[in-house]
TrEMBL record:
Source organism of this protein record: Acetobacter tropicalis
SUPFAM superfamilies hit by this protein: GST C-terminal domain-like (SSF47616), Thioredoxin-like (SSF52833)
PROSITE patterns found in the cross-reference section: GST_CTER (PS50405), GST_NTER (PS50404)
Name of the protein in question: Glutathione S-transferase
Superkingdom per UniProt: Bacteria
Length: 200
């Protein structure tokens, strides 16, 4: 049995939930509310998500996604094997961990959870990233390749919920269209809006 530890309002957790659903993998979701001794035992950094699978314990959402594809869907187009598209996917995974986290995700953390120590220029970083993404998505339908990949799953949630951080998507038409394409994928599951969930 696959067990996923996390919270429903985490975009990092959502990207793993989304992949699990697309791959049609059964799993048990364990909601966590903080860095418990159990959580710290699995990931001393205290971060979510954490995946447990037949004795294997993994953390870091992007690493978990790579594991799931290689373990349960080897050869899937979600994780290309050819060098150039593989590099494009990796680039966007890095953006998900960098610019997306420091921009839209950070702004959302401040607005929803009043988190301190987030970048003071998170909104400016968000619009710089979205301007770049919007131009890029005006040239192709998905981020890394002509078809959906882990890159799209990694970048979806914090982009879709950017308005929760005060970042409007109104002027980013190509991003809006891309979000709809992701939402149309078989097996898509949404990340709830914070107003619809009690934060855990």
């Amino acid at each position: 049995m696959i067990i996923l530890y996390g919270t429903l309002l985490s975009g990092h957790v959502h990207r793993v939930r989304l992949l699990l659903s697309i791959l049609k993998l059964d799993y048990q979701f364990e909601a966590v509310s903080g860095p418990s001794s159990e959580l710290l035992g699995m990931n001393p950094l205290g971060q979510i998500p954490i995946l447990k699978d037949n004795g294997i314990i993994l953390s870091d959402s992007n690493a978990i996604m790579v594991y799931l594809v290689k373990r349960y869907a080897p050869g899937s187009s979600l994780l290309p094997q050819d060098p150039v598209p593989a590099a494009h996917v990796q680039r966007w995974l890095s953006i998900a961990a960098g610019e997306l986290r420091q921009g839209p995700a950070a702004a959302r953390m401040v607005c929803l959870f009043h988190k301190e120590n987030e970048p003071a220029n998170a909104k400016e970083q968000s619009h710089a990233l979205f301007t770049f993404m919007n131009t890029h998505l005006g040239q192709q339908e998905f981020l890394a390749t002509p078809h959906p990949t882990l890159a799209d799953l990694a970048c979806y949630a914090y982009t879709a919920r950017a308005p929760e951080g005060g970042i409007s998507l109104e002027n980013y038409l190509h991003i809006q269209e891309w979000l709809k394409r992701i939402e149309a994928l078989p097996g898509f599951v949404s990340m709830p809006w914070a107003k619809d969930v009690n934060p855990v």
